[in-house]
Amino acid sequence: KKKSSHAGVSLVWKWRTDNDCFYKIAPLQNQGVLLLGQSSCILLDWKHCTRAAFSTQKSPTVLNRWNNTKATQEHQYGRIQSLQVISESATSLYCKCITDNGWILTMNLVHDKKQAAVQLIHGPPRVVIQETTCGEKESSEHYSKPLQPVTAYSTTSLLVWETVPTVTHVLPHHDRRNVGGSLQVIRSDERSLSIMDIHHRIAKLFLKSRATTITLHPSNEYLIVGNKGGNLEIWAARKLSKKRKHSE
After folding, report:
1. What is the pLDDT of residues 72-121, one digit of tens each?
2. DSSP for 114-140, written as a single string
3. What is the pLDDT of residues 224-239, one digit of tens each?
4. CB of 82 within 8 A of CB of 100?
5. Which residues pair with 126 in a beta bridge?
6. Contact, 27 vs 15, CB < 8 A?
7. Rounded-to-integer distance, Cα 181 and Cα 76, Å
8. 57 has which bridge partners?
9. Of 171, 155, 151, which is closest to residue 163 (Cα–Cα)?
């Protein structure tokens, strides 16, 4: 049987998993490829492929499967939309993730363990509770959520994502026990990007309109941002990293 070939491209190997749908793929320098699915994270070694009996196709070796990523994505963090492998060794992988709801997580994937070590390193602002329109404000235990998934981009040295606007709940009465009336929800009209470096320091870049696409120039010196209004902006990333820094 001939190999499938199109325009000079031929199929090397094919692999399929059961009961999962992978939506993020991270190629690795030494180990092969890391797949992030709805319920698990799988590490494949494509350097060591095997061929099943009576089959003409090769399949990569499954090195490990971590099964607790589903619980992470079902939490308030939201679905992981940006997966970046920061470092890799013969025994583990260290990744940083940006979620739909603007949370930044790290995942330490150790090869001989079945559970990923997930740690939260940054989150969106807390929801503000205000007693009537002119009343006092206080922070609640809940976190602000965006109306739509945040725009994000990541490299091994830089994470960039759309900052989640602060949500304020204005109560209809001074007495919180009074449930009559409707709760007023106000979202901040501030539009900005959050930029995190390898030391987890965060800089804020203020925009006039919502960012719809983000990328970094290959030189790592310029941040390119496309806005909702059809505008394209280029920012000097090195200069930006020296300004308006603060630690979380």
Report:
1. 655 678 888 888 999 998 889 999 999 999 999 999 999 889 888 889 99
2. SS-EEEEEE-PPEEEEEESTTS-EEEE
3. 999 887 889 998 866 5
4. no
5. 143
6. no
7. 27
8. none
9. 151
